[in-house]
Amino acid sequence: MDLREFLNVSWESIIGNKMRSLLTMLGIIIGVASVIIMVSISAGTEATIEDQITGLGSNLIYVTSSFGRIGARGGGNPFGGGGAGGLVYDDAFAIADEVEGVSAVVVEMSSSETVKTGNASLEEVTIQGTTADFPSVRDMEIADGRYFNQREVDRKQKIAVLGYDLAQELFAEEDPTGQIVTVDSTKLTVIGVFAERGMVSGVDFDAQVYVPITVVFQKFTPSMFARFMGNNVRVIYVEIESPEVLDSTIQQIELLLAKRHEVSLEEADFSVTTQQDIIQTQESTTAAFRNLLGWVAGVSLIVGGIGIMNIMLVSVTERTREIGIRQSVGATPNDIRWQFLTEALLLSLIGGLIGVLAGVAGSWLFGSISDMRTVVVFSSILMAFTSAAGVGIFFGSYPANKASQLDPIEALRHE
Questions:
Q1: What is the pLDDT of residues 383-403, one digit of tens each?
Q2: How far apart (Å, rounded) are the C-alpha atoms in residues 3 and 150?
Q3: What is the pLDDT of residues 66-84, one digit of tens each?
Q4: How far apart are CA 74 and CA 67, in angstroms?
Q5: Exposure pattern of 373-400 as b/e (b: 16+ CB <10 Å)?
Q6: What is the per-residue pLDDT across 229-245, written as a single tens digit (0 to 9) for each?
Q7: CA angle, residues 158, 108, 61, in degrees to nearest 5
């Protein structure tokens, strides 16, 4: 018998028992679909996180403060050398002035306050104190009015730029520019409104009030030690001119801050990371999670393979007389073996194909009806389909061997 005959006989057997064949393939269908859907959910989550990280801006370096080293500067004196460890506001200016390859530097300090206008009052609104380069670094656009400049930051001007949604809530159809908003007990003049940005990395940029960071230091987060140590900040965002200068810029920043803080690089009270560092960290985490999901879904394939073996064993018993007749007309044990192995493989491939279609459709449907993003990964389709074929061959081998070993005379006697 050649391959065409094997396929014809196997297909006739599958068609002759449609319901049993469908139930046999069900485990393979569920297994393949599960693998594709699980991997697509994981890949979608990974893509969402990466988009959120890159959505914060481009070519960014994050200089993060490490508090907890009291007296890290100035030989243990908390009032010496600028603070009790960590970054201060003046560090940002030093980076902007002395480090080559830097195009912009932003510092942020937030507070939660009540915001009032003549007709509206909103509680727990985020007041984001920042610097003049904020729109450039954060890829924000002004829809109306203007943004404040560095001179206004230095002079602690009581001005504000509103997020898009917040401006709508406070002023409705009225033009906010030139209006007064009261933040806690401080009156601020609105000079502009940002264009709609939306939610990025869990931060709603449209629901914040943006003011000079010096105003936040003075009015909302005052520190009695700021005069001696400087105003502590948590993160300094550094935008570089191009990715080519990334390594040299990081090295310059580390050396500059270590010198300013009077610490060695091994004992630095700050850390320097990049967007790519964060993306790689989350990729390793989600990759492990994706592999776990893939293995869990792969169990369904094994269950499906066991189902195929079980049904094929039943088929061998039911078709014992047919096997005897084939042997009597010249079919060799190898022909019998290949006949049943082809049938098992065909069941797996058809089930795998249906599973692929179900998996792709399920991934699309899940992404459409839920808040989670899904991304169908081609390699998962290939892996799941190949695994289905492997399962068919592996679990079909035992029934095929058993069929090939039947004694022709005993087989012909079987009722």
A1: 888 888 888 888 878 877 777
A2: 79
A3: 754 433 333 333 333 334 4
A4: 15
A5: bbbbbeebbebbbebbeebbeebbbebb
A6: 668 888 888 888 887 88
A7: 145
What's the average model confidence in pLDDT over 16-29? 79
Task: Please give the structure tokens belonging to residue 161.
Answer: 């730029």
Indicate whether 93 pLDDT > 70: yes
Band (166; pLDDT cuts 50, 70, 90): very high
Mean pLDDT of the chain: 79
Sign of the CA dihedral running 81, 87, 92, 95: positive
**Residues linked to residue 188 through DSSP beta bridges, in sequence order:** 181
State how far the Cα of 269 lies from the Cα of 258, in Å rounded to an integer. 8
Nearest to 89 by CA among 260, 268, 240: 260
Q: Name the pLDDT band for 372 (thresholds 50, 70, 90).
A: confident
- Find the helix or strand (DSSP H, E) in which 189 lies: strand 186-194
Sign of CA dihedral 260, 265, 271, 276: positive
Six token digits for residue 25: 């393939």
Q: For residues 276 and 261, give the distance between their C-alpha atoms in angstroms, rounded to a whole number.
A: 26
Buried b (16+ CB within 10 A) or exposed e, 324-340: bebbeeebeeeebbbbb
User: Which is nearest to 307 in space by CA: 15, 24, 5, 18?
Assistant: 24
Query: What's the gap between Cα 50 and its chain centre?
Result: 6
CA atoms of 359 and 39, how far apart (whole Å):
10
CA–CA distance, 411 with 405 (Å, rounded to integer) = 10
Distance (Å, rounded) from C-alpha 157 to C-alpha 304?
A: 70
What is the H or E stretch that residue 256 is in?
A: helix 246-261
State the Cα–Cα distance between residues 260 and 109, nearest whole angstrom.
21
Q: Are 203 and 217 in contact (CB under 8 A)?
A: no
pLDDT at 265 (0 to 100): 83
Distance of alpha carbon 132 from the chain centroid: 31
**Which residues pair with residue 204 across a beta bridge?**
199
Query: What whole-number distance in Å separates Cα of residue 210 and Cα of residue 189?
Result: 11
> Residue 160 is encoded by which pair of tokens?
């504000």
* Planar angle of CA 69, 74, 76, nearest 5 degrees: 50
Query: Domain ranges in the chain?
Result: 3-52+282-413, 67-268
Q: Please answer whether residues 140 and 204 qualify as being in contact, where contact means their C-beta atoms are separated by less than 8 angstroms.
A: no
